[in-house]
Amino acid sequence: MTWLTPMMQELLIEALGQTLVMVGVSTVLAIAFGLPLALLLHVTGPGGLSPRPWLNRPLGLVVNALRSTPFIILMVAIVPFTRLVAGTSIGTGAAIVPLALAATAFLARLFENALREVDPGVVEAAQAMGASRGQIVWKVLVPEALPGLIAAVTVALVSLVGFSAMAGAIGGGGLGDLGIRFGYQRFMPEVMASVVLILILLVQGLQSIGDWLVRRLSHR
Amino acid sequence: MADLRIARVVILAQPDHITTIMRDMPALQADDIAIRLAGLSKRFAEGGTLALRDVSLEVRGGEIFGIVGRSGAGKSTLVRTINLLERPDAGAVTVLGQELLGLDAAALRTARRGIGMVFQHFNLHHRRTVAENIAFPLEIAGISRAERAARVAELLPLVGLEAKRDAYPAQLSGGQKQRVGIARALASRPRILLCDEATSALDPETTAEILALIRNLRDRLQLTVLLITHEMAVVKSICDRVAVMEAGRVIEQGPVLEVFTRPRQETTRRFVAEVIGHGVPAGTLARLPAPKPGEARRLVQVLFLGPHSTRAVISEASRDFGIDLDIAAGRIDSIAGEPFGVMALAAYGPAEALEAAFAWMRGLGLVIEEIAP
Which residues of A touch B95 (CB under 8 A)? Predict the structure, then answer.
């Protein structure tokens, strides 16, 4: 990064920090909310452990609505909610709210797919042994789906890196914002190149760690 | 050759032999009923066909009871009603004296721990080792880690998997996976073992091994086994009694030897024929000499039960009735441990003499089913 001025270097590091915070915190939140949501969708779904169409359908509808809204629009559309949760509607903290919300909906669907991949025979065997619903969820479904769940988190992380580039629109900062403001608007190709390079390395790193974990946990 | 139809003769060398065998079976000595299904009906979709139609069965303590049927006959649904994986629309399910349909969720879970189940596709946890899979039912029953380890150490040698303790299912062969499935089913010391097509995904050699293991475990652990299969050969090799299912109904049931030798329903006959068919190689009929002018020819299947030789019957019939008996095919096999011989005979002679010879055979206690002259 010697072609960058010390000031630009500092800005770049600051932006990287903002991106990591936005992506990291919203991923943790998305897992915390997305997994229970996915389990609820899976368990109450048709053919699930306890089908509840009256709960499953509206829930699926909300998840789909969140997923089909373009992120940049979601971000501004939920400003009142963001203000309520984060106390402000601008800045990195404020950007985490829409990021976490979009990621929750996204992860819930990916998690649900991973849960659906669990061999129904294993669930049936557990039922035949007298396992309770809770035991089936936490001792069969989640452990058996774990490699799939990790793969889903990897996909979500990579997508969030992309989403976080739009956080600049509400003053969230981050690498994407830096690239737009300096690399594009101030004609500093070296900044743009650095941003893109760091993003590529970040995504590659996340994907490799995810793949390695999935391989280690699969036992297939 | 189109006009040549095949007569079928079933010879029961000693009519009271069957009852003797049955009396000697330990299963039939036990008078307690392990599983009683009464008037079970089940319809999956509204307006759909009935998967079960008024099915009633009793499985006695200590026996291996087979349910045989084609796919879609309802046998898998039936076995699933026994631990209420499938809830019948009507009827009663009584297991070890306990009526299951009236139980609340917690009591049903406890009852299920007394019923082991083995599956066609093993249904093992991919991310648990052999030992962890076997320990799973104990884990959900809240048994301590130390007790689980002790029980697993008992079960591994029982199914011959000591060396595979820490292997994952993906590292095992089909037969080994099923051994894990069996050990897991037995972990909580159930008195009943349900086998749902337990050998259908295995090759013939492994099937024989697993069946031998099931029988061995039944003897050692005084288990009652209910086994679902579409293969009559499985029934023949280990079952004491059998029920034949078709279109959601039990169409025939009884001791295996009786059902094999005196099948009453057409479906049963076809199942039995799979295992003890006349076995006449294709083309044999075409090669048989035509009867002389004024003589008749009939091809019959003869089933000999028990230790009695077929030779005396054949030579005596030939001598006393002046007919020729030509052995077209034959083999010796066993059902439920009882030897029997199946033979295809081409009989030549005057029509009246053939009739008289068959009548004489009937007189010996043979069941002769005339399908065609």
Answer: none
Contacts 24+ apart (CB under 8 A), A214-218: A214/A147, A214/A150, A214/A151, A214/A154, A217/A146, A217/A147, A217/A150, A217/B127, A218/A147, A218/B126, A218/B127
* Residue B25 binned pLDDT confidence (cut-offs 50, 70, 90): very low
The confidence score (pLDDT) of residue B141 equals: 93
For chain B, the structural domain boundaries read 6-16+276-369, 27-265
**Do A206 and A157 contact (CB within 8 A), yes or no?**
yes
Does the CB of B2 have a partner CB in chain A at under 8 Å?
no
Binary contact (A121, B123; C-beta < 8 A): yes
User: For residue A143, which residues of chain B lie inside 8 Å, CB to CB?
Assistant: 125, 127-128
- Which domains are seen in chain A, by residue range? 7-218 (1.10.3720.10)
Interface check B189 vs A, CB under 8 A:
no
The pLDDT score that the predictor gives to residue B298 is: 84
Q: Cα separation of A111 and A100, whole Å?
A: 15
- The matching CATH number, chosen from 3.40.50.300, 3.40.50.720, 3.10.310.10, 3.30.70.260, for B6-16+276-369 is 3.30.70.260
Q: Does B201 touch chain A (CB under 8 A)?
A: no
What is the architecture of the domain spanning B27-265?
Answer: 3-Layer(aba) Sandwich (3.40)
- Do A124 and B85 make contact, defined as CB atoms within 8 angstroms? yes
How many CB pairs (< 8 A) connect A and B? 73
Residue range A169-206, pLDDT digits in tens: 788 888 988 888 888 888 888 889 999 999 999 999 99
ipTM above 0.85, yes or no: yes
Q: With an 8 Å Cβ cutoff, are B109 and A126 in contact?
A: no
Tens of pLDDT, residue by residue over B282-306, are 667 677 788 888 888 888 877 776 5
Which of A137, A106, A128 shows the shortest CA–CA distance to A40?
A137
For A142, the closest chain B residue by CA position comes to: B127
Polymer length in residues for chain A:
220
